[in-house]
Design a protein that fits this description.
The protein is about 45% helix and about 15% strand. By secondary structure, it is an alpha/beta fold. The protein folds into two domains: about 150 residues, HAD superfamily/HAD-like (Rossmann fold); about 70 residues, DNA polymerase, domain 1 (Orthogonal Bundle). The protein has a six-stranded parallel sheet, with helices on both faces. It has a two-stranded antiparallel sheet with strand order 2-3. Strand 4, helix 5 and strand 5 form a beta-alpha-beta unit. The longest helix has 24 residues. It starts with a strand and ends with a helix. It binds magnesium ion (MG).
Length: about 230
């Protein structure tokens, strides 16, 4: 059995900075500081790390557990509005070919598709809403599972194992992302790794991380099947 775990931002969709705006909104409310996300690097990290970095940047101090809870709550309350705004302004898009690729994979008995994303689970499905891609992801590892991406991926794989009644040793895991952090996490967890280059990744850093496979997007299902060892 092959598990294929997809990152979300820049790999499945681009949400036109909806997440950053929702986080800015939460931080503005709590600290009075605007536009804090323009000062931190959000890509490839988990939500909770981003929430902590944003708070630290704005407030000049470490957030408490309670602060993180409040940011998460305010972020999730704001996110649907920001996603809608991105859609209305033409800033929301699917990565080319992703829907057909997911549909093709979901019809196979030897593959189980899941998510491996730093987004908190509810935020992930809010972001996927307009693309209608949520139904392809019956399990996953999410931002609330771990700060460390490799650990988050392993928890996702464990959940897939529950669903498919398998042990981790029975499964070959393939991670698809858009930044070097996806690759590094996949390697640390002992999984295969590939990258789409039309996301948010830095080409130099991607090259350095050394994924097994690279494509611009998902339009060539045949090429992806070659890497995945599928007929
Ligand atoms: Mg990404």
């Amino acid at each position: 059995m092959k598990f294929i775990l997809f990152d979300l931002d820049g790999t499945l969709i681009k949400s036109g900075r909806a997440g950053a705006r929702a986080l800015d909104y939460a931080i503005l409310h709590m600290t009075g500081k605007a536009d804090v996300c323009s000062k931190i690097d959000l890509h490839g990290t988990t939500d909770k790390v981003n929430f902590a970095n944003a708070y630290r940047e704005a407030a000049g101090m470490e957030p408490s557990e309670e602060h993180i809870k409040e940011i998460t709550y305010r972020y999730l309350a704001r996110l649907p509005h920001e996603i809608e705004w991105s859609v209305k302004n033409g800033l929301y898009s699917k990565i080319n070919g992703i829907e057909e690729f997911l549909k093709t994979l979901s019809e196979r008995k030897d593959v189980l598709v899941g998510m491996g994303t730093g987004n908190v689970e509810r935020g992930a499905f809010i972001k996927l809403g307009p693309a209608g891609l949520g139904r392809y992801f019956p399990y996953g590892g999410y931002g609330e599972d771990a700060h460390d991406r490799a650990k988050m991926l392993k928890i996702g794989v464990q959940r897939g194992c529950f669903l498919a009644d398998l042990k981790p040793d029975d499964v070959e895991v393939y991670i698809i992302g858009d930044t070097h952090k996806d690759i590094n996490a996949a390697k640390a967890a002992g999984y295969h790794s590939a990258v789409v280059t039309s996301g948010f990744g830095d080409p130099e850093k991607i090259k350095e991380a050394g994924p097994e496979f690279m494509q611009t997007d998902f339009t060539s299902i045949k090429a992806w099947f070659g890497w995945l060892g599928l007929e």
